[in-house]
Prior knowledge:
single chain; 3 helices; 0% strand; mainly alpha
Amino acid sequence: MSGALELAAAAVLGLGLLVTLAGALGVLLLRDAFAALHCASLVGLAGPIAVVAGALSTFSGDAASVVRLVLFLLVAIASAGAATHAIARALHVRSRTGAPGAAAEERR
């Protein structure tokens, strides 16, 4: 494998790390539960995409590993969307019922 390809893979993996770190900080710093959920959902998609892109660039012809990585990415994308929707719906239902601590403004 060439040095340029290794450098590109490291750059993509580093980008995935930075996106994940920024999303984690957003979850911690944002007061609104829906805004924090938005940060978490973006990280749930961008992180695995960057990691798989970096890993795919390092493989040299192993078809089984490539198929596994692509399947992992598809499962991660599908489950991230479903989990985000379920959490947002639960927040919405709790805020409508008036449960204590349920309002988005009462996150902190």
